[in-house]
Amino acid sequence: MRGFKTIKLLSVAMVSLFTATQSFGWAVGAQAIYSNPEVRDYDNLEFDLAGLSTTFQLGEFDSLLSPAVHTQYATGDGKTPNGTTEVNYFEATGTAGYLVYSTKNFVLRGTAGVGIGLADLKVKTNIGTNKTDASFVVFPFGLEANYLVPNTNLSFFGTANYKLYLDVGDERIRCADGTISAESGYNVCDNNNGFAKDTNFPIGQMKGMQLGIGAKLYY
After folding, report:
1. What pLDDT, on a 0 to 100 scale, did the predictor assign at position 130?
2. 2, 69, 212, 217: least CB-packed within 10 angstroms?
3. Where are the beta strands (DSSP E) in the chain?
């Protein structure tokens, strides 16, 4: 019983702390983004992706806590031994933000979160082009710097995020002779008549930095 009371008191204290330190405003924003994730299992293939991200954030400009939801679309390609792999990438992520430093018109926040990502790919192989897709669980960790234009509710901000992408699809490469490969890479079917025309290409794990710059309106 004493343990239950302790948990109850701690819960009330945490809620009280959040209520006392959190401002209940909100903001919407958009930013241009660039990322260069590296694919671990494909001979260090790197994608160059550029696109647009939108943000809905709870909390005022200088709130201690600032949970947010982000959506993004990016497109680009990566060089492979057989040509170019094209990709269209969609992502939705939720993050928690914590105020690290602030002045009257400037704040710096640390952010971390989790999300889902979907990639539509055109992979050039030794027998042509294969269309495939991949789904990811995404873990972003980063910093966000905001500058509030004096006497307005407009801010300009920049982000730097390290992202880990884990492919959660249950895909396997199929070679032209019917062999199923549990491994990834561009040479796994070299001794099996190349890739099957309708094979999928599991991405496995990606990681890399994403940079962005944009604007927000606070309400």
Report:
1. 84
2. 2
3. 26-35, 38-39, 45-46, 48-58, 68-80, 83-102, 106-125, 128-148, 154-167, 173-174, 180-181, 205-218
> What are 35's strand-pairing partners?
49, 210
How many angstroms separate the CA atoms of 92 and 135, rounded?
12
- Evaluate whether 121 touches 87 at the Cβ level (below 8 Å): yes
Longest CA span, the chain = 70
44 touches 51 (CB < 8 A): no
pLDDT of the residue at 187 = 80
CA atoms of 216 and 30, how far apart (whole Å): 7
Which DSSP helix (H) or strand (E) runs through 152?
none
The whole-angstrom separation of Cα 32 and Cα 51 is 6
| Tens of pLDDT, residues 111-129 | 999 999 999 999 887 777 8
103-131 burial code (b ≥16 CB/10 A, e <16): eeeebebebebebebebebebbbeeeebe
- Which of 87-96, 97-106, 123-132 shows the lowest mean pLDDT across its residues? 123-132
Token digits for 111? Answer: 């952010």
